[in-house]
Write a structure and sequence with these properties.
6 strands; Nuclear Transport Factor 2, Chain: A; alpha+beta; globular; 129 residues
């Protein structure tokens, strides 16, 4: 039997995959923060209010809507969750793909903080540079 926070993460990522960003955000706290590493165009810290614009809208724009993520595994407990993913997209005529981990701090069943940890930060920076 999965931990309830694993179900929260799976449901949130299913909403994201459908393009329902408001449903994804419904799994988040009002003061959630998103930390994206590196030196690329999407790097930075984003609030809940900045999640759709500028963060995700920039991802869609840069990839011309080709961005896809595949959830490989999800683990969670009362305070933390980890989602392992494969990302792929095309940008400027080149195909990119990489594996990454999304780490979450969870408070009372809500996603309170997100941090991305790419397996290869150099590849991540190249993809989003």
């Amino acid at each position: 039997m999965a931990h309830p926070n694993e179900d929260v993460l799976r449901d949130a990522y299913a909403a994201f995959a459908r393009g329902d960003l408001q449903a994804y955000l419904s799994y988040c706290t009002d003061d959630v923060t998103f930390h994206v590493p590196g030196h690329g165009r999407v790097a930075g810290d984003y609030s809940r209010a900045e999640f759709v614009t500028p963060f995700i809208s920039q991802v869609v724009e840069l990839t011309n809507g080709t961005f896809r993520e595949e959830v490989l595994d999800v683990v969670a407990n009362d305070r933390r969750g980890v989602v392992l993913l494969h990302h792929e997209f095309e940008r400027d005529g080149q195909r990119y793909d990489y594996r990454t981990a999304h780490l979450y701090r969870i408070e009372q069943g809500k996603l309170a903080e997100f941090a991305e940890y790419p397996a290869d930060l150099y590849r991540f920076d190249e993809a989003w540079g």
